[in-house]
Amino acid sequence: MTATTEREKERIRAVASLLHTACKPLRILRTLAWEPEVKETFLAQGGRELPQVTYPAFDPTSSIEAVREARRQIVPVTTIDLWLDRQANAIELSARMLAAVGTAGFFEYGRQLYGEPTAPLRYVPITPLDLAQSVLDTIANLAHIEMHTAPPSDHTAESVAADLDVAVRAHFGDQAPAIELVDRLSANALATSRAIRIRRGARFTDRDCVQLLHHEAYIHVATSLNGRAQTDLPLLAAGHPGTTRTQEGLAVFAEVISGSIELDRLRRLADRVLAIQMAIDGADFLEVYRYYLERTGDPDQAFENARRVFRGGVITGGAPFTKDLVYLLGLLQVDNFIRAGFAAGRADCLSLLFCGKLDLFDIPALCELYALGLCRPPRFLPPWISDPRHLLALLTFSVFTSRISLEPIVEVARKLLDSAPMVRMPGAGETFPT
């Protein structure tokens, strides 16, 4: 190894460390959290008055200064330096977004980080709003079909916690996250690298249990632990809004590939996009709450769904938190990346998706960093990557079918089945008529 190469590696380590330091104060969801009393008061008043929310003041100075120091050592012309520069930009925007919490400025910074419903996607001429509406329209087209399936198992929080504990210990060994039952939680379950928290009293279906394992444990926990092992690139341990789309996209893709996703889950992800657009168009918290109340019939769930849209933003409308765009959008981008990368003969890159908290566009830089010995291979991989036989077979089939236009085949199917009667299969416990 030449002295020049070693100096270059030291520079990269120093910049990555500075950006990691800049990330540390950025606790996005913790800063935007609402006190439990806000929901209690709102529901006690019958959901007729706007909630009163306050946020802790955030000083972005330390993060911005660390980013500026890092930029002094970045020359954004090489693949690695362009990666570092993107991280610096995302971290600074995140700090400024938190400093603007509760104001219209919060939305302006947030839309640069997470996107907005009507902004066309890069390389694909559709918008997140188009994508969400397509999902909802497709689900609506299935409304006339009677889907007779066995009733889902109803699991308690205690039984889910016990099952998850066994599964994560088997997968992560001595680095397994703790499984904690808590009385108050904004969702049924939330994960960090150290713990998966489950709300006591919540009920779960059989698919919910598998979904939690694949989404929270095999993706979010795994990428956190793998990132923490990157001693030369500690930045990979620090998730920030610039990496959120890919992280959540991977997590939802894991639901798809594991077979744990269902139509109601896709509907909820699409509804989030429509609700964000409602708020951008001026709808206040009450209007979005009523939209969700009509969709769910559950005041508690309607409040939580509306809270996701307005946390950190303006309660009276016009400036929401756009993070929840990333689930459907991230799923599309991760799916496209995996399929296109495979078709391009670069399936070797798939494992790098899990080496820490990253964005898809970081992969070329991470390939170079891996070649330099600065990026370590991920220790913890989801089962569909550690044993990729199913995934590779599915991708091979996908490459084949993607070459065939579906539209003329759909037209043939319509004509073929136009006069055929609807088929009703017997449901659970039913028998065929004699």
Pattern of helices and strands: HHHHHHHEHEEEEHHHHHHHHHH
Give the overall form: globular
Strand order of the largest sheet: 2-4-3
Which range does the strand content fall in?
under 5%
Low-confidence stretches: none
Main structural class: mainly alpha
Portion in helices: 55-70%
Instruction: Give a short account of the largest sheet.
Output: 3 strands, mixed
Q: Give the number of helices.
A: 18
What would the average pLDDT be, to the nearest integer?
Answer: 91
Q: Gyration radius, to the nearest Å?
A: 23 Å
The count of DSSP E runs of length 2 or more, i.e. the number of strands, is 5
> How far apart are the first and last residues' alpha carbons, in Å?
80 Å
Question: Care to describe what's here?
Answer:
The protein has 434 residues and is mainly alpha-helical. The chain is 56% helix and 4% strand. The protein has 18 helices and five strands. The strands form two sheets. The protein has a three-stranded mixed β-sheet with strand order 2-4-3, covered by helices on one side. Strands 1-5 form a two-stranded antiparallel sheet. A hairpin with a 3-residue loop joins strand 3 and strand 4 (195-199). The longest helix has 23 residues, at 206-228. It is globular and about 80 Å long. The N and C termini lie far apart (80 Å).
Which terms would index this structure?
three-stranded mixed β-sheet; 434 residues; mainly alpha
Write the layout of secondary structure elements.
Elements: H1 3-23, H2 28-32, H3 36-44, H4 61-71, H5 79-99, H6 104-114, H7 128-140, E1 155-156, H8 157-172, E2 178-182, E3 189-191, E4 195-199, E5 203-204, H9 206-228, H10 241-258, H11 263-280, H12 285-296, H13 299-310, H14 326-343, H15 363-371, H16 383-386, H17 389-401, H18 407-417
Parallel strand pairs: 2-4
Antiparallel strand pairs: 1-5, 3-4
Helix pairs in contact: 1-4, 1-5, 4-5, 5-6, 5-15, 7-11, 8-9, 9-10, 10-14, 11-12, 11-13, 12-13, 14-17
